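Continuing the series of single-chain predictions for the mutant panel. This is the parent chain; the variants come on the following pages.
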Amino acid sequence: MANSTRLDVQRRRLYALKRAPALRHTSNTVLLQLLERGQEAWWAKDAVVCEEDRDAEGFFLLLDGELDVRRGGEHLLTLRPGTPLGVEALMGGKNAVTARATSDSHGLFFPRDAVWELVRARAEPRQGQGLRAAGPSRKEPLHASAEVVAFESDVPGAPLSTLIALVAKVLVRDFGDRVLVLRAEGPATGVSMGADGVLRACAPAPGVPGQVDADMLQRVAREHDAHYVFLDGCRVTDTSLPGKTVRLVPGPLHARPPLTPGHRVLPTVVIDPEHPSRGAALGGLPRDTELSVDTRVLPACWLRLGLKRLVRLPVGERPLEDVELSDAEQDALSRWARAISHRRVGLALSGGGVWGFYHVFILRWLVGQGIPIDLISSASMGSLVGAYFCGSALDGKSGLEGLLRLEERAVNRQLSLAATGAMVTSYSLERFVRSDLGDTSLEELSIRFLPVATDLTSGHCVALEHGPVAMGVRASGSAPGVFAPTLVPPARYVDGAFTSMVPANVLLGAGADLIFSSNIFPFGVRDSAFMPRTGLGRFLAGLNPVSRALDLVASGVLLLHRSGDSESLLADVSYDIPSAELPLLTAMDFARARDILDRAAADGALAQKLEELKALWCRVRTRACPQEPHPGGRRAA
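Parent structure:
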């Protein structure tokens, strides 16, 4: 319980920091590290927190109390708890306002030097756009360092040098990044660029084999404007350099990988497509533990790739297009490159019955626009859509085939039949999914799929991460009172929507850098036209059991919808469907799938949100220089 409380406090403070425009699209990894540098501060009533035109020594996050904020002696606003103050002042170096405590207040103070230290040394070049935009103007210019990435492997026989070369090629081709691959073997050479656009050099350190002088490395990286330095068989002893260790581990991931002193670790779980991991019992972690307190271990990525063929694959300095890679291999390497460079895209899909075909439209649109999808968290109907997409998006496939299959089965009333059977036993829903997706497991998917379910025996919302996909969908969609529960002793799973309607929070812990949330279960409103005008009429109307039942239904739907709205605040872009007439009754009519698809296609608000997501992805994808501010970006805990 203590850990849960700590996580709740940390999460609330994380949300509060994002209220500052300069921090809105800064990654959660960076913000979590920033919170570690915050200093507790208390102000008595009438104490001056900051003064106009004075040097900005940092910024504040008000936790309790109130602050009176003035400019030029005129009242601007009253600052209330959960609001940051002074982030933008770091850009100009001077406080733009005077803030005075109107009551005993408490907050966090983030010293200027600690912020710049984080931006310079600890934040990945791809993550700190918001903070970089507020770079110091009074002090020396902000010189961003190249991120140093070491590679290690616990997978026997993994061709690590080949993998390093391939992922470097992908970063150059897909994003225009400048990657320097530094090898320890061979005589010291100058930096050369191959036909693939990758920079290469051999720079053995004098005296100690396999170690590279840190000053030399950063000097070379600056001279060639490198964003990343990949270490192939060598190590930099100076652990103060910004960087991380990418560690290959055999799947499934059961324990925290070994830590490299001074570096964070990005675990990469290798999945063999020919021998995927299956047979695990359905389960996962309670959602409250998803947002990791330990920022030294980054959220893992999954690499579905057969390594045996790569051992014999000639790579060299040829362009990636000339390397004989299959679609499955290119897809896996692209996902790995996005994880290393913090460009993972995640979708949070709500429940909503047949309204879930809004999700189908969204997924088709994203695929058509070439926007990658790396993670999906979902509840109820969103889990069914996510399963058909992720379960068919294996080994380079788009996932559209699975969505078409789901649409056809809904229109042909096969989904309605399975839903009717779930009133007796939710196994009918599991059988429905298994007939199309087979025995596919959650841990073998290319796209990380994390359906959520509510465990009534513990009260937790559980993000399911291992076990059969079909059973995960069954557990996530077991609407209590309507469908039978899913029993996986000792857990008693019911619909995940009752504890996490739009599970964007799960994506934070799973490593999404850019999050789109879709709350597609419309709320209904009661018609007031027939409200009695007399006191007796209203009294009798209040006794009407049918009216009370309708009140209960409308309230429940509204509660689910509003809870989804609150979680959607975590997303970079969120879509919220408007109200609809009798949404709960409509939700069970799965034969109307194509009507919902047509409605989604004609929804101007949805189109606007999707275009907003596309614009953010373009900024994340094309930011070629870490010194340039780009407002797009993540959320990556």
